[in-house]
Amino acid sequence: MTAPAAARIVVTRRIPEPALELLHGAGEVWLSPHDRPMTTAELHAAIAGADAVVTLLHDRVDDAFLDAAGPSLRVVANVAVGYDNIDVPACTRRGVIATNTPGVLVDATADIAMALILMSTRRLGEAERMVREGGTWSWSMFFMLGTGLQGKTLGIVGLGQIGAATARRARGFGMRIAYAGRRRADAAVEAELDATKLDLDELLATADVVSIHTPLSADTRHLIDARRLALMKPTAHLVNTSRGPVVDEAALAAALRDGTIAGAGLDVFEREPAIEPGLLELENAVLIPHLGSATIETRTAMGVLAAENAAAVLRGDPPPTPIG
Known about the structure:
alpha/beta
């Protein structure tokens, strides 16, 4: 009797070794030799005949992807909590299970959000650039003044796990918490954070710092546009660690340039890795290259959870973290 063929597992870019070891135990693994996003043609050629595909946030999973994979495909395991790169209804129509990696990157991303809040409000990026460029300076009472956080209001757009974790950190700095979102947060979370729910426009008009934690969808694309930036205080700061297209990058550059708001800290961008040229010219913009989950521990946990999702489906078991 011929033994059943091993499942074919495609990994679209290198992931941590513990995750790869787990996948090797679940089937035959093909790992992309490129340490970059594959082109669409490369991706579609690689996934032909796959039973499972482990994707990253730059891989577009749509009808063309599913056609290229063929009828053997059973699971797409995304190594990210966000899944705006996946057409989930298209997967569902074809009986393909889509999964993501929630939970494991909450603390790392909240740490980055808090770091960006501090960098923007205390002008740390500008100060570091000045020192490295050999600028002339000496201590004085009015040199490179920023603004403190104590007693200020942090407005959280999307009080999910990461938003709540950011709020907890901000509370440690003496900030008050307000939030906006489609749904009211759990009463226990509201009580713990002493958080006030506001309409988004009211939140923008009253918060001293706005931190964005909403997923990207058709409804949230350019959620923060020129009109909404104009609602913010001229002393306010905007931080985004969710997805770049939630903010209209060109409008943000104009708002920072014109003094509509005081500063911004961005970990994500509309057209990564490209960045709106206007932002690059501004001292009041803190720009870092999508480092929200970039700790050894977190990226390993993300890879392992994605691998566990793929392996579970291939065994015929429910995955730990399905989407939807």
